[in-house]
Design goal:
This protein is of the alpha/beta class. It has 11 helices and 7 strands. It has a 7-stranded mixed beta sheet with strand order 3-2-1-4-5-7-6.
Length: 273
Amino acid sequence: MKLWSTISAWLHRIGRREVPVWFETSESITSEFQTIGKKLKIFRLIPNPFPFYDWIMGFYERVSNREALHGPILEQARKIVDVGAGTGYLLSRLVKATREDQEIVAVDLSQQMLQDSESYLSKHHLLTLRTSFKQADCRALPWEDNTFDLYVSSYLFDLLPETELRQALKEMERVLVPDGYAILITMTTELDDIPWISRTFYRLMNEFYCLGYDKGRWNPIWRSLFAGYAPHCRPIALGSYLRDLDNMVMAYTKVSRVSLFPVRIYYVRKTHG
């Protein structure tokens, strides 16, 4: 009985835990991504490492990014902000999916990432006057209340420590107009609403991922496999944080259909308060 209780407890816990955050502050995130290019140069043979970074992350990030951007939420937004724009893939999807009369602002705390976003758009002939770039902190965005119709963020909130995550969500709530929407994409531990076969697979994948993520465990192996790069995002229960906001309601949420690790897409609407 004791053995079965131990096994049952492990099965219940597996894939649900939130591992300790990799970064202690947003500033440490900036420092990491300002220098990530140096860390990704395999034996100094890659002159421009950011495509390699995109390739590493692309096997689960790009699928969910493509899947998230569709429908009337995107079509009706006149002013859009992409917070944590990174290397620019989600931004490029936004440009492709929107009209000429829709304004897009790309935000990142790392100037290096913003430069790479701009280069990515330029390379794919998507750089337009309606797209601008702003170095800013997601915890203190430099815009007035009720500025944006749509707030988009992909794999940002699962980087942040809890206190800073809550600050960033409050800023999201502040800069959105009433009836504005947020589309948020994160790695997730929230899997109870999907079929048990998929749920079991994703919980196992979460557990494997967390073994690689945890400091002092398998992380050195991950770093050696990926030429100095280690995973930064971590599975979180973002829905529990969203429910604590006063003026945001969940419109719809789903687990990404095609992804090696469990990723959840949230569509959240700001009420009139």
